Amino acid sequence: MDPSSGPPLSIVIRSLDTADTLPRVLAALCRRPDDQLIVVDSGSTDGSLEHARAAGAEIVPIKASEFTYGRALNLGFAAARHGWVLALSAHTVPMRPDFLDLYRAGIAGRFRPDVAAAVGPLLASDLDRGLPGGVTHYELGDFTHGFGFGAGNPNSLYRRELWQAHPFDEQIGGGEDLEWYLWALRQGHTIAAVHAAEVLYISRRPMAAFYRKGRVDHRAMARLITPHSPSLGGVVVRGAKLLLYAALGKTDWHGAKGSLAHCVGNYVEARSLRRPR
User: Fold this and answer.
1) Residue 139 gets which letter from DSSP?
2) Model confidence pLDDT, tens digit, residues 155-176
3) How many angstroms from the chain centroid is the CA of residue 22?
4) Predicted TM-score (pTM) of this structure
5) Average pLDDT, the chain
6) 10-201 — its CATH code?
7) What is the DSSP string of 48-104?
8) CB of 115 within 8 A of CB of 192?
9) How far is residue 51 CA from its own chain's centroid?
10) Environment class of residue 24 by beta-carbon count within 10 Å: exposed (0-12), middle (13-18) or buried (19+)?
11) Could you give the CA distance from residue 159 to residue 85 in angstroms, rounded to a whole number?
């Protein structure tokens, strides 16, 4: 693919004390000179901002007391100059040097004209890698029937003019990406999954935080659609796979335990929501 083809991108990364992973994310982004890099920071004190500035990022501050995922993204998108904005987490490392060009190719012609956003896979290990390439388009019926199509805001590209028409919900504690996708799909747009635009999720948060996020994520999804309910057997299989990946050195033990804790949180929250009130 010719990297000079396709439009420039604005890249918005949310950060708080991510000096252990942010440099890897920035190094993996093979940006063009006309791409824009924005880091929305909620009070880092560990050197994250120095790494961001060294990479040429524009820093958009947000007070920790005012932080929600939706508000941080809205601030970053408001600073964006280009027509397409890529939302990334400071913990998600692109796995291919042509990561940005995969999205550019979609914009330049692989996406249908009605695409509102595009997403890539979020992986816990390189053994999780799935489809080698291609683009799949999802419509409203796919979404409401529980077909997952990508990572959400740790790795998601948006058409900025549609974000201007409908900014992210700043009040909900999680699921601002799902709420936005559902809005766009109800307007007659589609969401594209770019299967090769994979990112590796790395985080050093404690297991309790992953567990809480698993519960929040499932609760957020259940507010909007009827999600597939995770089963105990599925959690056991996921745990066995993660332990195998860690033993093979394909993911670290902390990441494996965190991913499992997130799955357990999903399962517990699903059971809680099924109980009669």
Assistant:
1) -
2) 999 999 999 999 999 988 778 8
3) 15
4) 0.81
5) 86
6) 3.90.550.10
7) HHHHHHHTTPEEEE--GGG--HHHHHHHHHHT--SSEEEEEETTEEESSTTHHHHHH
8) yes
9) 21
10) middle
11) 7
